[in-house]
Design brief:
Length: 285
């Protein structure tokens, strides 16, 4: 009798220990597909609504306060069966895991993707018909840090709150301007340098030039996957005025008939060419 009681006690205890805890919170969303219209040529106009969730570890407005959140993505896309383009809007709600009913951050953008980073978020508009993607980086106050075509280069400085962002934006409305090089530290401290000139008339369609940070220190590294430099040569640099001995280089690769065109932008005391001007102009030679 004693043996049977001990076995029953063990089974009951084991069952309680392995019982799954009840969920204390749940959030759900809907997804749908709607045919809006069909014209005489059997071209369908449609709308897709998708709900997705992501776990993120980010610092909203204060880089010293990282926290876990779940992000609820609601993506609405409209297009038709005869188009490569789509109109897409993404709405995000960010909830802290320690108080999941609360919404700490909301965002709605007309774009094709939004990536929530540790201290910034990036929006992306997909290219169409051989064009280039458009990217933009914002802080969590929704202030623009930098925007550009195809890719954004960043430079992190170890043991420093400073970070460098570099991007190129093509010019479509002014034939005498190739585009603008954007150089930024944050949403308030940034520089725009217009590049004026004309590429050879028989060169290929202008695309974003290759962008790189040139330094003389072999310890400085570039990560091709993240498009980020780690600038060990500036290790511990806590003041923009101490950012020296780096050069931003852009290279236009026209086509096989012409030599590559290279422009250099030295950073002196944290500023392009050492100039205070936030808006600058350079010319192709």
């Amino acid at each position: 009798m004693l043996i049977i009681l001990m076995v029953m006690t063990f089974v009951c205890s084991y069952s309680q220990q392995n019982q799954k805890p009840k969920s204390s919170f749940s959030n759900s969303g809907e997804s749908s597909f709607t045919i809006i219209d069909r014209d005489s040529d059997s071209i369908y106009t449609y709308k897709i609504v998708e709900t997705d969730y992501k776990l993120v570890y980010i610092a909203l407005n204060d880089s010293s306060k990282l926290n876990y959140y779940f992000a609820k993505y609601t993506t609405t896309s409209e297009s038709n069966t005869n188009s490569e383009n789509q109109n897409r809007e993404i709405e995000i709600e960010v909830h802290p895991l320690d108080n999941p009913e609360r919404i700490d951050f909301k965002l709605k953008e007309a774009c094709d993707d939004i990536i929530l980073g540790t201290e910034i978020f990036t929006t992306k508009e997909d290219a169409c018909c051989g064009g280039e993607d458009k990217l933009a980086i914002y802080d969590y106050n929704k202030k623009l840090i930098i925007k550009g075509n195809e890719k954004i280069i960043s430079g992190s400085i170890p043991n420093s709150p400073l970070k460098i962002y570099i991007a190129w934006e093509n010019e479509d409305s002014d034939e005498t301007t190739l585009g603008t090089l954007h150089y930024s530290y944050n949403s308030k401290d940034k520089y725009d340098i217009k590049v004026k000139g004309i590429l050879p008339s028989d060169s290929s369609t202008l695309r974003t030039p290759e962008i790189s940070i040139i330094t003389s220190n072999s310890k400085d590294e570039f990560n091709n996957e993240t498009n980020e430099y780690t600038l060990w040569s500036l290790n511990g640099c806590n003041s923009k005025a101490l950012v020296n001995n780096i050069t931003i280089q852009i290279v236009f690769d026209c086509d096989y008939k012409h030599k590559k065109i290279t422009l250099s932008f030295p950073i002196i005391k944290g500023k392009p060419f050492g100039k205070e001007d936030r808006q600058q102009i350079v010319f192709l030679k």
